[in-house]
Amino acid sequence: MSAQQKARAAWGAELPLWILRLARACDSTSQADVARKIELSTAYVSHAINRTDHRSYDPVKQSFELAFNPQPINCPTMGDIDYSACKAAYTRPFSAANSRRVQQYKACITCSNNRSKKQ
Questions:
Q1: Nearest alpha carbon to residue 82 among 60, 102, 66
Q2: pLDDT at 15
Q3: Residues 4 and 20: beta-carbon distance below 8 Å
Q4: DSSP code at position 59
Q5: pLDDT value at position 28?
């Protein structure tokens, strides 16, 4: 059974568009590849598609939309950037090499797009 079929069976008429897009992405590559790209476990992705967990699916939705949505992210220090540039910025270690980098580091620490911080 494909991920899309599983999602339709689990969610029925309430199937959110982002879950369908998540399932399509899993079908086109693999669930493991999608999970790696959105920086969440394959189990959490599976739970979202199959609607088998009682936790909130908001982290899956946010991670999926960040990684697969082509819309730019409005960064307070770099302006409109794509997700790969955002991820490169928040995963970069602190450096006091210049004031702009320090400003960017401080902004990334509290940014809602920062997937590396503990939730």
A1: 66
A2: 95
A3: yes
A4: H
A5: 96
| Whether the Cβ atoms of residue 56 and residue 43 lie closer than 8 Å to each other | no
Q: What is the pTM of this model?
A: 0.69
Tell me the C-alpha distance between 62 and 18, whole Å. 10
State the pLDDT at residue 117: 60
Beta bridge partners of 49: none
Residue the block writes with tokens 């270690």:
93
Give the phi and the psi of residue 58 in degrees, each rounded to 5. Answer: -60, -40
The SS3 call for residue 52 is coil
Closest-CA residue to 94 (of 85, 107, 77): 107
CA 116 to CA 52: how far, in whole Å? 25
**Type of residue numbered 32:** A
The parts of the chain modelled with pLDDT lower than 50 are 118-119
Q: Are 99 and 107 a contacting pair, CB within 8 Å?
A: no
The candidate with the shortest Cα–Cα distance to 23, out of 39, 53, 47, 56, is 47
pLDDT for res 118:
47
- Termini Cα distance of the chain: 33
Name the DSSP class of 118: -
